[in-house]
Amino acid sequence: xxxxxxxxxxxxxxxxxxxxxxxxxxxxxxxxxxxxxxxxxxxxxxxxxxxxxxxxxxxxxxxxxxxxxxxxxxxxxxxxxxxxxxxxxxxxxxxxxxxxxxxxxxxxxxxxxxxxxxxxxxxxxxxxxxxxxxxxxxxxxxxxxxxxxxxxxxxxxxxxxxxxxxxxxxxxxxxxxxxxxxxxxxxxxxxxxxxxxxxxxxxxxxxxxxxxxxxxxxxxxxxxxxxxxxxxxxxxxxxxxxxxxxxxxxxxxxxxxxxxxxxxxxxxxxxxxxxxxxxxxxxxxxxxxxxxxxxxxxxxxxxxxxxxxxxxxxxxxxxxxxxxxxxxxxxxxxxxxxxxxxxxxxxxxxxxxxxxxxxxxxxxxxxxxxxxxxxxxxxxxxxxxxxxxxxxxxxxxxxxxxxxxxxxxxxxxxxxxxxxxxxxxxxxxxxxxxxxxxxxxxxxxxxxxxxx
Length: 452
Known about the structure:
452 residues; mainly alpha; Growth Hormone, Chain: A; 18 helices; 2% strand
């Protein structure tokens, strides 16, 4: 297996990446499989268990509302544990250990999820697996400062998202075939078994592709402070927040902007399949278009990776924000499957780019020796922020249940899910304002001086 990864690394596609950069990129290839499953088939499997007239089952609108509420819960928990994990990871020789632990918990949870027999148990296990997955990203993001240099951060970060999108298609295709064809194969594979196959294949892929990073990663940047109790870590986090608020307006304004626009990004990712199912669109068609969206996202990320070498990072982030704003407004008119495809492809054009550019830009404006701590705070805004969008969907869906699932806006009847996604445009618009404000602020003396 090690020899196979080495040959891939030496191929023409990855020839400009070092061994550590390549291993870091591969983790995006691994964890993206879980992300892809989570935004497509997992909500479908959840609804197949939840919706019905039998005792303990619920309506479709309530299933969407509870899914959004569960997503919000995950973001709150991750927001609380993220800074602590980041601060702990800043100590010498600890980042790799805590990263490995979080990945292992997520992979095991993914496997167990396939065997859940009730919608409540299914949702609980998924929440636990998603928390572990999100925690691993805190450590993973902070590794960027160790595996590459500032001048390569934009490109390497973009490669992670780009190849994560295309790599996730491999296990997802297996899961999709089991989902679509399994129940019709003379009854050999039931819907329950196809669900198990989807989770197990995804978990196996996630772990195997993570192995190179576990073997090659070496922590270079770390804090010289001695390890302390959790209370000490919280004091350190609050001190960092206070320092950012009082002395580093550039980081502060960017975090506010990131909090707002990434909320919309995460909400759309987590609820994209719910948009189509609530509109009664063909489920298999939606999933196939989401699979094709991975290819669009791959191309989009590579395009922005090349642009990042010549264009200003902040300008590219603003382009992505405007693109997402247009997508949200377009969602107000969505009623047919082909429109769902247009929306999905529009999201794909900017999805990886806005995340990779934000991650690399942030890595440039923070001090290297406290990257884990700063990225822990970054993840408060990244993972905790999506609480707002998911909670917005929950509220809109609950109000929509009372109005028959539709809202009368300027004389037109618009379904509640369309309204919820459309309202996310405000998050992007306000986020754009703060990105511009951050760009005008001077670089802090504690951070690095030259920002592209």
